[in-house]
Amino acid sequence: MKGHNILLLEDDPGFGYILSEYLRLQEFEVNWVTSGEEAIQQLTNHLYELAILDIMLPGIDGFEFANLMKQQAPDLPFIFLSAKSLKVDKLKGFRIGAYDYLTKPIDEELLVAKIKALLRQNQKSAHHQDQYHIGQYLFIPSRFQLTFETETIKLTAREAELLSLLCAHRQQLMPRKKALQQIWGAQDEFSRKSMDVFVSRLRKYLSKDAAIRIENVHGKGFILYG
Fold it and tell me: How far, in Å, CA of 40 to CA of 44, rounded?
């Protein structure tokens, strides 16, 4: 599971440290934060594949943060970890959209098994995603086709791969480094300039729908809206 990025929201310094270190030993990449406000900022700047959320927090609690997170990253799955063990709290967590709700003290091995199962499930779903609706466009990655009304644009393999990555993280930051490594296999200046050219091409292809835009977040990456 190396390279899978997890956002851990936990305000208890002892438990947060132990859990984050345990997950790193399992070869996950963990960003541990202690408040909902800080977690919101991290969502703006980074791309995650899973969030693990405590509920009893200072300021924004875990339930409130989950609702805010769904607005900013609607496809990001999350698991609640909490000392709140009442049935009413668990039901509330699942109604909000949690993948699971585990009560403390937790079994770390069970948590890791659940995380791996969730990530495998998400990867399988992403692999079988054969079309995306982008505004008024239809994008079929397997055919390298981008269609607007009766016009079809044939994309190159790299254009299709880049657009697929943008679509998979729509309305979230697609980190430049992640895309460069995944698509170009390098992060040198030539690859960065090449990526900028490909983004410009995609903007041109998508320009017939004014509601679509690919926003450049300077020094960080790109966000697809539409």
Answer: 7
Mean pLDDT for each consecutive 10-residue tract of the chain (226 residues)?
80 96 93 94 82 94 93 84 93 91 92 87 59 91 89 90 91 90 85 92 95 93 92
Spatial distance between the Cα atoms of 76 and 62, rounded to a whole number of angstroms? 15
Q: Is pTM beyond 0.70 here? A: no
Report which DSSP code applies to 180. I
Rg, Å, the chain Cα set: 19
Q: Which of 4, 71, 44 is closest to 33 using CA atoms? A: 44
C-alpha 191/C-alpha 1 separation (Å) is 26
**Residue 80: both structure tokens together:** 């609640």
Yes or no: say if 101 and 130 are a contact pair by the CB < 8 Å rule.
no
3-state secondary structure 43-88: HHHCCCCEEEECCCCCCCCHHHHHHHHHHHCCCCCEEEEECCCCHH
